[in-house]
Specification:
heterodimer; A: 67 residues; mainly beta; Ubiquitin-like (UB roll); five-stranded mixed β-sheet; 10% helix; B: 202 residues; alpha/beta; Rossmann fold; seven-stranded mixed β-sheet; 7 helices; 36% helix
């Protein structure tokens, strides 16, 4: 199985995998996210267009109010 | 009484003090996190702190922020400067009474060695982190996420994502009309300050 890692959890890779698809697969509904793919920052306007390649290391960081 | 700088630093480790005295640390926000981070880093003797915040002190802030009753109504950065000078007058403090945005962050903080994110609102945290990672990818940023409520010491942690560090439990959101409380905010702020030291001395 071809995979990527999302916050260290392996998930199945597929063709044309975007950040939005990954968020759906992971059932992440949080709004305030910082996302990095292989160490590179992905801005919100790229969530629907950036294609995530096989074996990518995806980090999704959920930011919570309070301070 | 004459205050002697050598007395102030007499309990500091002489092997690490020169590194600490040379460091410049940025703090974005001077509320619960920022005021606590600033107080700890001033006590440690960090050479220079750059602190920005647009807000004024309200009575309700005193539940967790390092201010006093006679400072209510003052800009937080002005009051924080007064308090830091009372703690350690031998460091340099640069304050900015300004709302930080994508444009002014890189101007105000371009000379810092490490950046500390100390905002309250999640959207401001995101704005700062994304601006920082884009503008200064080689410089570490230490953010906080998830510190409302009380107890649950075992849930609070630090995670590293390349040059981005997150301190907090990453799950407890501050509820409407309920602000975070002194112990947990203080813990997370001091984890951020502790990580600043660790990185400087690595």
């Amino acid at each position: 199985m071809k995979t990527i890692k999302v916050n260290n959890n392996p998930i199945e890779w597929q063709e044309n995998l975007t950040i939005n698809k990954i968020l759906k697969i992971m059932k992440y509904s949080f709004k305030m996210l910082v996302i990095k793919v292989d160490g590179e920052l992905i801005k919100k306007n790229e969530y629907g267009t950036k294609i995530v390649s096989e074996n990518a290391d995806v980090k999704i960081i959920h930011l919570i109010s309070g301070g | 009484m004459k205050i002697n700088q050598n007395d102030f630093f007499s309990k500091h480790d002489p092997k690490i003090l020169p590194i600490i005295r040379k460091a410049t640390i940025g703090i974005a926000g001077a509320g619960g996190l920022g005021s606590n981070v600033a107080v700890s880093l001033a006590r440690v003797g960090i050479g220079k702190l750059i602190i920005a915040d647009f807000d004024m002190i309200e009575t309700s802030n005193l539940n967790r922020q390092q201010y006093f009753m006679n400072q209510i109504g003052k800009p937080k950065v002005i009051a924080l400067l007064e308090n830091l000078k009372q703690i350690n007058p031998f460091s340099e403090y640069q304050i900015h009474h300004i709302k930080l945005d994508e444009k002014n962050i890189s101007l105000i903080y371009k000379d810092v060695d490490i950046m500390v994110e100390a905002f309250d609102k999640a959207e401001m945290k995101k704005m700062l982190i994304e601006t920082w990672l884009s503008e200064f990818p080689e410089k570490p940023i230490i953010a906080a996420s998830g510190l409302a409520g009380y107890g649950m010491n075992e849930k609070i942690h630090t995670k590293k994502f390349d040059n981005l560090y997150i301190c907090g439990d990453e799950e407890t959101e501050s509820q409407k009309d309920i602000s975070p409380m002194a112990p947990r905010v203080g813990i997370v702020a001091n984890m951020q300050a502790n990580l600043v030291l660790e990185m400087l001395l690595m």
